Every structure is written in C-alpha cells, then in structure tokens.
Amino acid sequence: MGSFEVTILGASGGPDGGATQCFMVRPMGCRGLRSICVDGGAGFGEISQILARSKDSCKSELLESFYANDFEPAGQFFDDKASISVGFPQCMIGSLEHALEKQNTFTKAMEIYMGVKEYYITHAHLDHIGAMVLNSPLACDANNEDGKLIYALPFTLQAIEKHIFNDVIWPDLLHCGSNRLKLSRLTDGIPHVCTVFPQWDIIPFKVHHGFSASIVDKRVYSTVYLFSDRTTKQALLVCGDLEPDSASDGEPLLEKAWEYIAKRVTRGNLRGIIIECSSSASTPKHELYGHMSPAYLVGQLSRLREMYGDPNALAGLNVLVTHVKTIISEKDPRLVILQELREAALQERLDVRFSMAVQGYTFSF
Ligand SMILES: [Zn+2]
Ligand SMILES: [Zn+2]
Description:
Order of helices and strands: EEEHEEEHHEHHEHEEEEEHEHEHEE
Bound molecules: zinc ion
C-alpha cells in the first residue's frame, strides 16, 4: 500500500498555453477535499475539465495527442504495472457527491479549488504559476474562509512578489488586506511540516535550471520537493524544471538531493519520482535550455542508484515523466521520449517503470 495520490492537473512543458505543470498531492485514500499542489500551471479551469471528462468513461480511454492521430489510446502512455485511475481520487469525489449531489461542474470544481490549501512552487516561470495567478481573485474571495499559502524557496518568492503581484502584471493581492493569499518561505534542505497533512515533511532542494536568456552566465534555479510521510516512512520526489549539475558545470545541487534521499529514505520506501524530460534524445545539448533529456534523466537515476550502493536499489520504482515540450513532428514526442527512456534504462540495467504524466489521471505511489 502506497502513501501518496497525485492527480495531474497539467503536465505540458509548453510552449503552447493551457494545462502546464500542476500536480495535486494528497495522502492515499484521504477523505474530504483538502489538497496541496506542486506548482500552479493549471487550476480551476482544468479541474472543471477533468470533472466533466471523467463522467464519460469512453472518452477517458483516449488521450488528446494532435500528432499521428488526434486521439491516442491511453494505455501507451503508462507502464503496465503503474497504479492509475481516471479523474480525481474516488475518495475525493465521494466527499464531493455527498455534499453537492445536484450541483453543476463549475460548482463542484470550485469546491475542489477551494480545497487547495497550499502551493509549493518550484520556480516562477509562467508555465509553473500561470493559473495560480489568474485564479488568485477566487482565492481572495470572502467566501474562501482560510485562503491559500504559497510556499517556495526565497528566490522564487521574491520573483513572485516583485514581478507578478506588483499591480502592473497582476493586482497585488498579497498585500490587499484580505490576508487570504500569503507567501511563506522555505529553507533549502530543511524539512517543513505540512500543515494540511501534518504526517508529511516536505523538504525543498534548490537545483539548476540553465541560464538567463539575456544575461551571460546568470544562473536560473528551480526546486525539487521530497515528500516524506513520517507514519509510513515512505517518500515521493516531485520535481519542477531542472538539469543535472554537470550540464552547466554548476555546484553540486541535485547531487545533494540524491545524497539526502539515499541516506534518509530506506530502499523500497522511495515510492516514486515525478520528473521532467522536456525534449527527446535528438535535441542538441545547447537546445535543452536547462531541462532534462532522456540521457540526462537516466544518468541521474543511475547516480541515485549508485548512491544507494545497491544495484537493485531502484528496482520497480515508478518514474512519472512530465513537461514534454510541444513540437511540430510526426509522432507524439511523449511517446518518443518514453521509448527512448526505456531503451536507455535497459542499457544501464536500470529496472524502473516509466509512465507519462497525463492531465486528468490520478497516480498512486
Ligand atoms: Zn517549465
Ligand atoms: Zn522553467
């Protein structure tokens, strides 16, 4: 039995707009509507779509692709052994239907949105905060009793405060007196006790995410979050955008996260890794712009295994791949990347299970 349920509200890495990265994370089997989200690239609109779509079980067996076929059978995107369900977790929908049997989709979606009590933001790029910002007037609504907290490392909080909620790009709802939308600072490598689900420690690690597009040698950073359940001792790693330390000759940052996990999470208790792989193997390194490729991702998983000092340390680990960039090509790049990852892992004798994070599905870890 796992510990975590993750509903994918958005998994695209852009550059087309829409459902970009946002993962709703809850303890397995948790009743009620309370949740937290890692990143805010999707929100109220996507919650509504997911609710409406999951009513029609036929449609949910096909996924939007818009490449070789407009719709592809869902099965190709997931590992055979991954634990997956369509829509929001049943225990969540159960609480919703009990309270709101005759309500329409928007009313139900608002209940779920109001249940998001905390955001954990990896970095301030728009594809990771867009919907959170656009939805923020709803969060500040007087009917929303306890509002929302936005957690992040200082570099991300500063960017959100200075460049987004500044009364120019978006109204400054952080300082408008409603007190319903607040920033809260985390510390690199230090466990934070989650207030929504107090059995969880959430540990942020700063990681590299390439360089500034305009200023030479100015580094860009992002965050990965380790969820650690103190009761079950199980853990889940949820990443935003990132690259290996070596990709930009950077100081060891991701290396420190792997070290922490190998030291503190007992083999087998690491239930899953949600991590980006934005581009396929055919992309030249200088066009990755601070992101992962299949070779980088498999390399980093091998590094984690090495740190455990056990060739079977990651056997059967579920790796959920996100943030694939939309490109103009024949085949769906998500299917291309999945195949490349599986082949690269086979070569490294890395026995992990890759699935693609697809909007509207719940994965159990
Ligand atoms: Zn991104
Ligand atoms: Zn980014």
